[in-house]
Amino acid sequence: MPLQRVQIHLYALSQDGTSKGISFHGRTDREGNYRFEKIPAGTYKLTDNNVLTPKWRLKVEVKPGENTPIDLGPENSLKMRDDFPKPS
Predict the structure, then answer these.
(1) Residue 21 lies in domain
(2) Tell me, what's the pLDDT at 52?
(3) pTM listed for this prediction
(4) pLDDT at 61 over 80
(5) Is 83 domain-assigned?
(6) What strands, in cross-sheet order, belong to the sheet with 19-27?
(7) Is 84 among the domain residues?
């Protein structure tokens, strides 16, 4: 089942992993596809929710001049992978 109309967020991170205060937002289409364009190279946190519990929380490296395809599915969801675990 495609992720229809799900909001996706990219948050720029500094080298120490803290927020740079720069973010990009988009939404999946009816087929579950999404695209961010003209994103500066760097490290980002990709998530589908910025308030409630997200389904994804992934660290993404964007390299200059390259596309960085990321399929969101059960295999990289929080149940299987969390690149930003909450401290206990």
Answers:
(1) 7-76
(2) 80
(3) 0.88
(4) yes
(5) no
(6) 19-27, 7-13, 42-47, 57-62
(7) no
3-class secondary-structure state, position 57: strand
Residue 62 included in any domain: yes
Q: What percent of the chain has pLDDT over 90?
A: 77
Mean pLDDT, rounded, for 49-57: 84
Span 39-47, mean pLDDT? 96
Decide: 70 and 28 in contact? Cβ < 8 Å.
Answer: no
Contact at 8 Å (CB) between 3 and 32? yes
User: Hey, what amino acid is at 52?
Assistant: L
Q: Pick from 79, 87, 81, 51: which is nearest to 70 by CA?
A: 81
Q: How many domains does the chain have?
A: 1
Picking from 32, 33, 36, 30, the residue whose alpha carbon sits closest to that of residue 10 is 36
- Evaluate whether residue 38 is within a structural domain: yes
